[in-house]
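Students often ask why we bother encoding 3D structure as a string. The short answer is that it lets us treat folding as translation between two languages. Here is a chain of 103 residues written in the first language.
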Amino acid sequence: MDQYVEFRKKALPILRPDLSRMSVFGSTVRGDATKKSDLDLLIRLKPSGERPKFGLFKLMENVFLSNSMAHDAGVRQIEIIGESARNVSAEFQENYPKLPWAK
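And here it is in the second language, the structure alphabet:
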């Protein structure tokens, strides 16, 4: 849980204006985290009208741009989401016709 305490001390002041709730799950909660374990967080943001403008840009600047490993990991996650979104099956798209699927 030390990893969470450390993260909370550093991130909470930055996240507080945007954050509705932050929860930890995975090995940290189970008590079997090692030095190589990542920290699994579920972050719920406040509705956009309740968050300061450009608040998430501040978060990105403070967390991702100041740490090259975090930046690279974040970029890779966005790439994976993009790749997955391009490969959504026709059947799935048919099940959700109200979504604006690219043609």
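Translate back mentally: DSSP finds five helices and two strands in the chain. Keep this in mind for the problem set.
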